[in-house]
Hints:
Elements: H1 3-10, H2 20-24, H3 37-42, H4 56-68, H5 73-86, H6 88-97, H7 99-106, H8 110-116, H9 118-121, E1 128-131, H10 138-142, E2 152-156, H11 173-186, E3 193-199, H12 205-209, H13 223-240, E4 245-248, H14 253-262, E5 270-271, H15 275-292, E6 301-304, H16 308-323, H17 328-332, E7 335-339, E8 342-343, H18 378-385, E9 389-392, H19 402-410
Parallel strand pairs: 1-3, 2-3, 2-4, 4-5, 6-7, 6-9
Antiparallel strand pairs: 7-8
Amino acid sequence: MTDQSRADLKKPYVETARSGYDLLNSPLLNKGTAFTEEERDLFDLHGLLPPRVSTLDEQVARRLQALRQLPNDFERYVFLRGLQDNSEVLFYALLVRNLEELLPIVYTPTVGLGCQHFSQAFRRPRGLFLSIPHQARIRKILGHPRFANVEAIVVTDGERILGLGDQGAGGMGIPIGKLSLYSGCAGLHPATTLPIFLDVGTDNPERLQDPLYIGWQHERVRGAKYDEFIETFVSAVIDRWPHVFLQWEDFSRDNATRLLERYRDGLGPSNANIRGPAVVAAGTLLSAVNVTGTPLRKHRIAILGAGGAGSGIASLLKRAMIEDGLSEEEARRQFYLVDRDGLLMEDMAGLLPFQRPFARSRSELQGWSLEKADTVSLTDVIKNAAPTVLIGVSGQFGAFTEEMIRSMAASVSRRPRPIRSRPITRSTPRSTALHSRPRNVNSHRNL
C-alpha cells in the first residue's frame, strides 16, 4: 500500500464520483437509510431510499431483530453474507457489537454449512476465483487497480475444509469468513483484505455431478501441473504486493506444510492450520510454565494427532526448548507424536517429511510395556513415558479417557505461583463514511 493510500483510508470522508444505484451497490460505501438529506441531494439518492433517515444504531437494531427471527444458523449465515455484500459498515457494526452471538455464525461451526451449500447460496461474487483454465490471466487479474490497497490475503484450494474434506469452490467460504474476523476482531480495514480461491478442480463426487456447482467441474489437478499453478499465483502475488500478509487456509495435509516450507523465504506465508494451533499451544504452555515453575526443557510432551497441526505444534515447541538450552536431539526426544497407527516410528510406511523428525526408533522403546506388541498407543505412551503435557489435535471422539488423565496426574506435581492478570483490549475496524461535500467529479477518485 502506498503512503497516499494509507492517508486516504485515514480520512474522515471518502471521495467518490459514484452516485445513485452505483453508490448503493458499493458495499464499502453504501450507508443505506443512514444517508443524510444533504448526502441524498449530493449523490442523487432521493427516491431511491425510504424518506426516513436512520442512525447506524437503528440500522443495527433492525438487522439484529431480523437475524434473530430466522429459523436456523444456516439461514442466519446467508443473511449475514448478504448484509456484508450490501453494506460493510452495517455488517461490521452488527458483528462487533454482537461478537459472542455472531462469531459462531460468521465462522466455525456454521461456515462449514456455508461451504457445503456455497453454490446454492451464491448471490454476489466476493474476492477472487483463480482457476487453472485461466492460469495465464492471473497476473492481469491481480494487477487491476481495484486491488491496489490489499495488505492481507487468505487463500485456499478447498481440499480440506474443516472436517468436511474437499468442498471445491465452496471452500471460498473460509477465506471470506476468516478475513471478516480479521476486520471485526483485529481492525483490518475491509478494503485492504482479499479472499482468494484457487480452483484446481475437485474430487468431491457431489460437486462434480451437481449441475448448479459454480466451480471448475473437473477432477482435482495434482503433481507438477498443480505446483506450476501455485507458482504462477505466488510469483504474481509477490510482484503485485511485495509485503502482503499471505495466509494459506485448509490445504490438504500433503500440500500444507510442503507449500509453507517452499515459500517461507519469499513472502513468509502463514498457514492457520499449522502455525495457528502451534502459536496457541506454545502460548498456553509457556503460561503454564510460569505458573508451575518447571522449565520448558524439562517437559515431556505427548501429542495426539500427527498431521500438520500436531507436527507444527511440536516443531515450534522444539524450537522453544532449544532456546531454553537443549540440543536439537535432546529437544526432539522430549516429544511423542501419536497418529491413527500409534506412536510415530521410523520404520512406519508413508511417513510425511514433517513427521520424520519426531519418529522414534524401536531401540528407544526398549523396556516399554505395551498393550499390543505391534502398536504403541497413546495409553502406552502415557504409562511408559510419563509425559507432563498432553495435547490433542485430533477429531477422534473420546480419545482422552479418565484412566489416561489420572495416570498423567499421578506422575506430575503442581506448585502454582500467583500470577497477575492483565486486561484484554481489542481494536475495532473504523467505519467507512461518506462526507457531504460539494461534488467535483474531476477531483474525486473512484474507489
